Amino acid sequence: MEKGKRRIIHAFQHLRLRNDGLQTVSKLLHECRAENKILRDKNLQLEKTIDSLNLKIQKSAVSATLNSTGEGGGEGEKEVRSPPNQSFDEDHLPSSSKQLVENLIRENTKLKHQVHNPQKLDELNLRARSLQNLNSALKAEKNKLNQELESLISSIQQSENGKDKLILQLTTDLKHCRSERQHERSHRLTLEEELGKLNDELTDTAQKCLNMRKQLPSSTSLPPSQSHQREDKSASTSQPSSLSAEPQSQFSNEKFLQEQNTRLEIKCNNLEQQLRALRGPASRPDNQLISESSMLKEQLADKDKQINKLKEHCQALSQQLKVYEGDFRKERQERERLIRDYSQLEDYLRELKAQQSGRANPANNAWDGRQQQAASRYKAGSQGVRFSMQGSKSQTAKDNQPKATNKGSQARLPKTVVSEPIIEEDTISLSSQTDVVRPSLPGKQTDLACYKCDKKFGFDMHSDLIDHLDICTGT
């Protein structure tokens, strides 16, 4: 049983490889035929161009001769011109027309040489070889890509937890950066409010200083009644004293105001510097956070693209797996069918052996009836096995039964023949791989032969043949 199964599997694999090779050869033949057709079309075009060039040569020769005859003066006009189809000698043609004809002849020879050039066939053969090499290289690349795809799928399945951890870590970092950014914004707003308050205070102090500057000269100067009385008493002494007191008071007030202004300016400058120093580190983390967030977004987009590509690869692989699964199911069904046929053939062989062991019984009619019943059961049960008969198909079952000899003591036994495998589309016949005993045609005295080792036995050595079959097949 195991040997028969192995043979069937080996034959099936061999036929499958042969089918693949025939398909590749048919494709190459189709491509070669298409290329040959293209080359034939090119040859026809070249031949047409050659014919057109020949016509042009003839026309140019005729026109040149006509022009040469027409230049002979007034007398040439009266002469009768030759018809255009008339051939002219090269001696009567002018030099320019001769050169033109020679050039056209050379081009014609070149075109003919190109048409009948054997290098085209060599180029086609080289192209076919290059296509075969390219096909093998593409198959190798396909295998490499399949291996890479499998490795990617395994890495994806292994690194799913790592990706989830990385995404969680990145999201936590983003939240932390956003909280720090909000804290820095609030701190910056408080500093801006303090700066605004200081600016308001500065403007208030400046306004107060101006008001004080306006009020100080009026307070230091005397009222008008007292000034008039003093002027009446001593006009000469009061005028110099008032003139000397006013500049001193104004100078002191101006100096005080200038000092206050300088102090306020210094304070404002210090506050502005502090604000700038605080704004600098607050703005830098903002830029860093923006750049980090953009980088993280790009990384997430790249990861999404990779995931989409891997999903597409997985879909393609799933489709291929479905196709392979369908092929595997078909092969399994075919294998089961072959095993059933093999078991049916074994049952049929056992029945034949049992019938042959009881053939020594003189009741030949009962033997013939049992043989017919076994054959009918085998025909009804086995559908994938075919018998290749040597006689015509029109003979009936009665003609195929063994006839008695003249003595009436012995009957003719069927001959075992090893039939060749028959291939129809995708089915395989098991006539060459199974134990099939086929009846021989009536009227022919032929020897018996083992279906496995092709050992010959005499017509009367049926018992030896049965023993040999038991030993040879191992049943």
Automatic annotation (TrEMBL):
Residues 29-56, 121-162, 254-355 form a coiled coil. The lineage of its organism: Eukaryota, Metazoa, Spiralia, Lophotrochozoa, Bryozoa. It comes from the Eukaryota. It comes from Bugula neritina (Brown bryozoan). Residues 66-95, 215-253, 355-414 are annotated as: Disordered. Keywords: Coiled coil. Residues 355-375, 389-409 have a biased composition (Polar residues). This is Uncharacterized protein. Residues 215-227, 235-244 have a biased composition (Low complexity).
